[in-house]
Known about the structure:
Helices cover 31% and strands 18% of the residues. The protein contains 13 helices and 18 strands. It has a ten-stranded mixed β-sheet with strand order 7-8-9-10-13-14-15-16-17-18, covered by helices on one side. The longest helix is centred in the first third of the chain and has 14 residues, at 71-84. The two termini are 37 Å apart.
Amino acid sequence: MNGESYIRRLGAGSIRNPHRQLPTGHICKRDSELFEGCSRDARGSPAPARHTESLDCIIMTAPINLLDLTPVEALSRLDDYMVAKEEPGYRAAQVVRHLWEKPAADFGAMTTLPKLLRSALSDRFSIPRLEIVARQRSTDGTEKFLFRLPDGQQIETVAIPEGSRLTLCISSQAGCALQCAFCATGRMGFQRNLAAWEIAAQVREMALLEPPIAVTNVVFMGMGEPMMNWIAVDRALTILNSPEGLGIGARHITVSTVGVLPGIIALGARPEQFRLAISIHAPSDELRRELMPVNVKYPLAEVLEQARLFDRRVTFEYVMLGGVNDAPEHASQLAALARSCRAFVNLIPLHEGGALEFKGSPPERISSFARSLRDAGVEVAIRKSRGKDIAAACGQLRVERLGRGAPRRPDQHGEVNVA
């Protein structure tokens, strides 16, 4: 595809728009109070207030992170740059292709560009990497990655092969504030939200491995609650799904939540067919409050109402805790909940490495529980437990490497937000 057709595919109407807003990193000469009215960005750093672009705007701060822009935004920014440098118009499209579609490790690796241009781009823009701290491979083929972020925080990503499909389980926060009783991530506490690029880059890094890992499906089921970082997750979804981004079909991307209602509403408002999974884990408010404190704010009745309003089929995630939520009466209660919103139920054997005081339900109990759901007219599957030999429970590897650390309250971070 040539540069002109690529630009048309991205939407050339946005190119050279003199009134579009600038992302963090742009400063106008006319602005005397740079940080007046600023918010805090997803890394906790002050972010300049936005200003409309004009000819007197120059870049005086750190290089612009192209990975934190959508492909359309990146093309627009690069197009302006190439015009100023008197480079051919197709050069911007060449760079954008190397961000996500055919990712390059750095500008130097973009060998379709002239050497002098590659050097100049690295002065103005950045394409940061996630550093692999640990990589573990299970006997069942599951691989777990521990990534270090630019500020030293660490997150986990898990690659799960199954036939021709490769599902990548990605993180949306470093730590988690929700303190679910059976979750290792919740026990480490909340550290900070991830920026959009840090979320999407977990998939990008798979393509940069040697040999690369080809991701077909993405699930937001790693560290953190995605709906508590909706602004970044929303942008990351666009990057993941865009044909000019990672190009993963919306129906192959699932966002999992404990039931944060504003986030469910916001996801449902997007036109793409993204999937929704709700972590139920208990069929009554009383038991769910014990296991998941968030149920106080978002009780089951309200969560179920939003599940019914969601215009795509919802999956209920249900971790099987021996002697806690696996009795026949629990199956009957869960079946009633699932039928009320036509939900599919995914039964999850407990990965005991992440919850030492809980025991997983024995396999025969899980099978019996599943039969009860099917007999009640509910579609159900038992998730295959993967990566037992590599600390694959969510948050387990990070805790083993770093310890629990001092958690932050969510309000200590400027970007804990819902839609």
